[in-house]
Amino acid sequence: MSERLVVIGGDAAGMSAASQARRLRSAGELEIVAFERGHFSSYSACGIPYWVGGDVGAPAELIARSPEEHRARDIDLRMRTEVTALDVPGQRVRHRDLEAGTESWTGFDKLVIATGARPLRPPLPGIDAPGVHGVQTLDDGQALLDALERTPGRRAVVVGAGYIGVEMAEALLARGYEVTVLTRGEQPMATLDPDMGRLVHRAMDGLGIRTVASAEVTKILTGDDGRVRAVATDAAEYPADVVVLGMGVRPETSLARAAGLPLGTSGGLLTDLAMRVRGHGNIWAGGDCVEVLDLVSGRERYVPLGTHANKHGQVIGANVGGGYATFPGVVGTAVSKVCDLEIARTGLREKDAREVGLRYVAVTIESTSRAGYYPGAAPMTVKMLAERRTGRLLGVQIVGREGAAKRVDIAAVALTAGMTVESMTALDLGYAPPFSPVWDPVLVAARKAVAAVRAAE
C-alpha cells in the first residue's frame, strides 16, 4: 500500500525534498502532494534585486522548475493553495483554494514543512500606503517594477541595509533613482563588524547612495492622494516617491507554533541532523523556517539562505524516500555586492564570539585582488578572528572590489575543517599574477592572526 507525502511550500526546500523523494520512490509507492500559496514554484528569490535592476531580463529566468514540470514528474503540486491548519495527531492538513475560496483536509503519512520566511513589516503608520514595497516573492518584484514604470518622481528610500537593502539600493540606482538607505544600525550590513560596515558605508556614499546610520524609522508619510511622499525617522524626513522595505525576515512558523511543534529562540523549527522535527518521527522541516547548528559557536542560529534550503530539501527527500542523509550545520557564509563593491563574511563576528564566551584576537589587513603590478589590481580589506590560545579560526570578513567576495570560500572550508590560522598559512592556494598576489590576502590575514595569537599567550 502506498504512502502519502504532503509538502507545505513549493519553493527550494519543499520541492527539492519532493523531487528527491520521487527519484527514490515511484508514484505507486509514494504519493506526493505539495501546496504552494503563490503563483510560482522553485524560483530564486535571491535573484529578484538583479531582475529589478535589469541584469536579469524576465522573471521566467529565475524559475528553476515550473508547476507543470513538477506535475510531469508525478508530483501533485497545487498552486494558489494555502495550508491554514496542521493537525499533528490526526495526520492531516487543512488547506484553502485561494481562487475558489473552498477549504478541505488532506491526510498524510509523512509531512514536510517548508513554509519559508516572512519579511519584517513593522506596524508603522503608513506602512501599507501605495508606493511602499517588499521584495520577498516574484509577485513582489513585478509589483515593484510596475510601480517604478508608473512613478513620475525619481526619489527612492530603502529601509534596511542588510543584504536585500544594499542589493535593492543598487537596483534602484541602476534604474536612475536618487537613493537613500536608512538603517537603524551603527553601520550598514549588520552581518559585519561595525569597522567593516564602515567601509561599506563609505563605498556606498562614493557610489552616490546616501546612507543614513542609526536612523529609526517612525512612520511613512503620505500625500493628499494617499501615496507615499516621505519616510520619517526620529530625527528627519526623507522625501520618497517609492519606498522599498529590506528590514530582514523571520521564520514563517505560525502553523508549526499553533500545532505545538518545537521552536528555537528565533522562532524557527528545531530539527535533528536528518532534518526531522524533534520529537516527531514522520515530520521534516527545511529552508528558511528552521534553525540550524552553527559549527563554529556550537549553538542553533537562524540563517535563511537558498543554498541551505536546497541542501535541506535534498537531505529530507533522501530520508523520506528510504535513504539516509544528514545536514551537519553551517558556518554562516554569505556574499553580496552593491555595484562594484563586494562584501563577504563567514563564521563569527566579534559580537558573536563574545556572546558565546570565546576569547579571541582580531586582525585586519589591506591587500589587493591581484599582484600589485598587474593591471586591474583592486584593494581589499580582510578581517580575521582567531581563538586565543588555540589559534582556531573563528571568522573572516572581506570588503573589496572585483575578486574579493569569493575568497571567503577559503575561510569557509577552513572553518568547516576546524583549522587553526597557523595551519591555514600553509594552504597550497593557486597563484598567478592575474589572480592573486604571491601571498593571497586571506593567508596574509592568517599570518597576522598567528602573530596576534602568539602575542596574546
TrEMBL record:
<dbReference type="InterPro" id="IPR050260">
    <property type="entry name" value="FAD-bd_OxRdtase"/>
</dbReference>
<comment type="similarity">
    <text>Belongs to the class-III pyridine nucleotide-disulfide oxidoreductase family.</text>
</comment>
<dbReference type="InterPro" id="IPR016156">
    <property type="entry name" value="FAD/NAD-linked_Rdtase_dimer_sf"/>
</dbReference>
<dbReference type="Pfam" id="PF02852">
    <property type="entry name" value="Pyr_redox_dim"/>
</dbReference>
<keyword id="KW-0285">Flavoprotein</keyword>
<feature type="domain" description="Pyridine nucleotide-disulphide oxidoreductase dimerisation">
    <location>
        <begin position="336"/>
        <end position="438"/>
    </location>
</feature>
<dbReference type="InterPro" id="IPR023753">
    <property type="entry name" value="FAD/NAD-binding_dom"/>
</dbReference>
<keyword id="KW-0274">FAD</keyword>
<keyword id="KW-0560">Oxidoreductase</keyword>
<feature type="domain" description="FAD/NAD(P)-binding">
    <location>
        <begin position="4"/>
        <end position="296"/>
    </location>
</feature>
<dbReference type="GO" id="GO:0016491">
    <property type="term" value="F:oxidoreductase activity"/>
</dbReference>
<dbReference type="Pfam" id="PF07992">
    <property type="entry name" value="Pyr_redox_2"/>
</dbReference>
<dbReference type="InterPro" id="IPR036188">
    <property type="entry name" value="FAD/NAD-bd_sf"/>
</dbReference>
<dbReference type="InterPro" id="IPR004099">
    <property type="entry name" value="Pyr_nucl-diS_OxRdtase_dimer"/>
</dbReference>
<protein>
    <submittedName>
        <fullName>Flavoprotein oxidoreductase</fullName>
    </submittedName>
</protein>
<keyword id="KW-0676">Redox-active center</keyword>
